[in-house]
Predict the structure of Glycoside hydrolase family 1 protein.
Amino acid sequence: MKYKDSIAFPEDFFWAAATAAYQFEGAHLEDGKSLSIVDKNINPNYADTSVTSNHYHKFKEDVALMKELGMKAYRFSISWPRVLPNGRGEVNKKGVNFYKRLVNELRENGIEPLVTIYHFDLPVCLQEEYGGWSSRKIIDDFAYFCKVLFEQLGEEVKYWFTINEQSNMFLLPYLMEFNKELPLEKQKYEMNHIMTLAHAKAIHLCREMIPNAKIGPAIGLSPNYPETCRPEDVQAAREADDFRTYLFTDLYMYGKYRDNVWRYMEENGVTPTIEEGDMELLQSAKPDFLGINYYQSRVVKFAPETMENKDMSINMNGKKGETEFEVVPGIYQGSSNPYVEKTDWDWEIDAIGLRTLLNELNDRYQIPIIITENGIGAVDMLTEDEKVHDQYRIDYLKIHLEQCRLAIGDGVQLFGYCPWSYMDLLSTTSGFRKRYGFVYVNRTDDDIKDLRRIKKDSFYWYQEVIHSNGQKL
Ligand code: BG6
């Protein structure tokens, strides 16, 4: 059902945009910063993290452009090894100062800072010392990192995201380092449990230290559709949602493992180690909101037991048709959706899926939601007269925003929208070939050029959207 113009975005809606430290800042070894696991493991076929968009040195110019765009809020992440080069212990003053100056600059320009504490960039030293997220030791180190941030930035920052895309770190092994000697699936469930404990501790700490702040996770989610109305496929889609969405959201919201996922783990010998007090901790840390990263929906069908288990492969080259689907034998396997367009990287463009997902989450949890990422990765062309005509980006964002408006009409408590990304940055999988921003950064993977900022057509479109509070899409 569609609503007419009676449904509008709330007056105080956070019209925002997002970035992440390792993709945007550059300066990967400057002013005392040490390396993170993404600095080390980023796809070697593309640019590395040493310069990226050089935001570390150009943040004032970048905030001035945010102001010109009319942004009400800005989501960015903090680099753990910039603040704590040893992962814990001595605080790197220069690193903290960078974030203090950024937050001040935002505040002076009337832009609300929305801070992600962890966006994939674990200090290498912690990975080497005890295996990073595979060890419970990280829970205290993460809590210490959070404590430093709440102390240093808590007066100015009132919105915090604990962990970005725990769901995808779990699904896509390249975002984490796993021990090749040990069974992968078991490690994934262990790490997921440990990460959720760290998230829960961060929530408690935030409430103690900055009681007037709000905190929640930012989760990457895609709703699953059945390939056909064959009952087996419908059940497969339900279970795909249980394994890929509700496993995480139920843990965050109720501190509880879903029964069917738990039984699967038991039957396959991959249950995480639960220590005394774990479940109580999880149950006591309900977030204030859910942050949702949404790019696409997925289609699944039943997978017979005889199939081989397979992780999803990622299309890194931007040539259509290269993605291989995930298979979970006896449960579900991925398939393609013939009813929607796909990006060059095979991501299925489905704006209605966003409304579906928002409604599902609202029905289950009745909690405020913010879209922490949504956007289209594409090869943008800079014309000779220095323009970027990215109508495809405008089309993508427009249809998703229209579905957000409809979801608000359905009763979803949506309080903000952060397109990915504010400015061009290093795509995690595909470097600078795959761009997302409203602002073009003049560089390629091989040539840093002058890193000039150039406003794309989508910049002017989003400016109008914000100016009209979403009336003019
Ligand atoms: C999200 C991540 O998964 O998707 C971002 O939070 C990432 O860090 C974005 O950049 C888009 O993915 P990619 O691989 O196209 O850069």
Notes: The mean pLDDT is 96.
